[in-house]
Amino acid sequence: METANNIEKCIIIGSGPAGYTAAIYAARAALNPLLISGLQIGGQLTTTTEVENYPGYPNGIMGPEMMEDFRKQAERFGTRFHYASVTKVDFTGPIHKIYTDDGKEFLSHTVIIATGASAKWLGLESEKKLNGMGVSACAVCDGFFFKGQDVAIVGAGDTAAEEATYLAKLCNKVYMLVRKDKMRASKAMQERVFKTPNIEILWNTETEEILGETSVTGVRVKNNKTGEIKTLNVTGFFVAIGHQPNSEPFKGWLDMDEQGYIKTIPGSTKTNVKGVFASGDVQDKIYRQAVTAAGSGCMAALDAERYLAELGVH
What we know:
By secondary structure, the chain is α/β, with parallel strands linked by helices. The protein has 2 domains: 2-118 and 243-311, FAD/NAD(P)-binding domain; 121-239, FAD/NAD(P)-binding domain. Helix content is 25%, strand content 28%. It starts with a strand and ends with a helix.
C-alpha cells in the first residue's frame, strides 16, 4: 500500500458533471483539489450522444465532448487528476483515508463524493449495441429526438410511469412494456398512464430483442402468459427499471436510504460525517440531470471550502 505523504485539502471522487464542477470551484478557491476519476471517466454522459438541454450549448453537444470541456476547465484552474477507482474508505478520524484499486492510500481534510449512479439495464446484447442509437435510460434527456415517432418503454414503477407520460407528449405512440399483470407505480401515477390515450400498456410482456443495425427499427416482445411473439415498429427504446447509486465503498460510513443513495442534510451537501460531502446522482434519485448534478457539485465545493475555513486549514 503506497501512502500519500501530504494531507490533501480536498479530494473529489468521480468525474461526471458533479465531480468536474466541484473541481472547478475548489480549484478556483485555491483548495488545490485532487480528482479521483473512477472507472467511467466522464460519467453517464459519455454514453450519451447529443445533449441539447444543457444551458450554454445552443446547438447541442455530444456527451463525451461536453465532459471533455468540463475536464479541461477543471484542469485549467489547477485540478490534479488520478485515474483509478476508489475501493474503500476510512472515515474514522478528522483526516479521511481513501484507498484506490492501484494500491494507493490518500489522506484528505475534505472529501466530495460525486460517484453518480448507473442505470439498470435488461442485459440484452442488442441493448448494449444500440445504446445511444435509439436505446436510452433517460426519457427527459433523449425523448425530444423521437418527436412524432413511435417508441417503447420498459418498466412498471413510478419512474417508468412518469417517463411514459412525458414521452406521450412528444411521441406519436408509446408502448409501455410491463412484465407482470400489474404495475408497481403509485395509484396516482397509474391513473395518469391510463388516462393518456397514446400510451398502450402491454401486460405480461418481456423484451426478447431490440432490432436494428445502426439505429432502432423495432423491438421483438413476448407475452409470458400466452407465448405470443410480436414485433413493435418503434424507433426508440427506453429502459426505466431503476438506477443503482455507485455508493458501495461508503457503506457502513455514511447514512444511506434503502436503495443506497447517500443522505445529505437538506439544503446542503453535508453527510453525517464531518468533512464528507455528497453531490450529483449518488445522492439525487429525483432529478438526475447533468445540470442539477453540476449545481450540487458547486454546492459541495462551497460547503468544503467553508468547512476548511472553520478548521483553519489554508
